[in-house]
Write the structure tokens for this entry.
Amino acid sequence: MQIGFAVIEGRTQPDRKIFTIFCINLFTAILGNVLFMSYLLFYSPMSSAQISLANIPTWYWNIVVFHSFMALNISMLVSRVLPRDLASIHHFWIGLVISGVIFAFMERWVWGEVLLLRGYLGFIDFAGASVVHSTAAWIILAAYWVLGRRQLQEVNGQPSILNDSHLLSLGIATFILWLAWSSLNISMITGEYISIQKVVKHTFIAMISTVLAYMFLALLYQKRFDIEELMKAALGALIAISASCALVSGTVAMMIGGGAALIIHLLTPLVNRYIAVRSIGDIVVVHGMCGVWGTLALCGVDENLIAGANQARLMTQLFGVLTIFAWSFGVAYVLFRLLRYFVLAKRAIKNHVMRMR
């Protein structure tokens, strides 16, 4: 998935530090989840008995691995917009807060034993449309709000990798991303029966319907469509369907994909008016808004698994989406405020003093 993201959302500008950042984020994703799961396993008051390392069930480690890669996905998205000269130790602490605090508590509310949102309220987000992707968007929005556009990365004048000379790379990246996304949705931990064929089919239907719908809208209103924007629409569909790929019919998957195309077409230029950094605006729309749309779309699904359990009602889904926004944005806001005060402000003063000399 990271390879697919790198090609589709990346640029041709080389960055020798990106591998170091990836390793740091991978380490913090694993460390944060292991620390949080260890606390729940050994010291949580919810536990009925103390458990030793020797008899930890295998499925517990499966959850740690799955959640670690979800946290890695969030951290990598956030790292793309952080200042390029930010020290590795600061990437470490940011990644640790994302994996061990922001994502760890949220996935427990939706997927874990507490089930604060799903168990008590009936909120559903099957494989992370809001829990993973919208969370990343809200963290990045908090970074933009606190640090300002001058502190964040923006590649200007660099040719996009999505042009005619890179169609083969584009095709390979799209296939890798679709395959990885289908596998991600399949591997989501759940107590319900899941049809693998249904998950793959609906993921594919949503992406194809989004591409066709976006092409139609672009040709209707702009008389042309851009390949890069088309790939963003496909990515938005994959994010939106993650909330419900195992729970809906093919027709509903098609409608979710069409809604994602409409969101990309209408909201991208609107959001970019208020967010000066285009890459951040794209993340807010593609990951944030499409994740919200996919999560809210579940409230209109007439499926026995959902309707029979009295789940995924409009107010429930809306409350869950707002809770995820408040938690992600709020904690990230405090995190980047501390970063700005203790790191960036002192560095700016130091640079100013050096220039005065």
Summary: The mean pLDDT is 76. The CA atoms of residues 4 and 173 lie 5 Å apart.
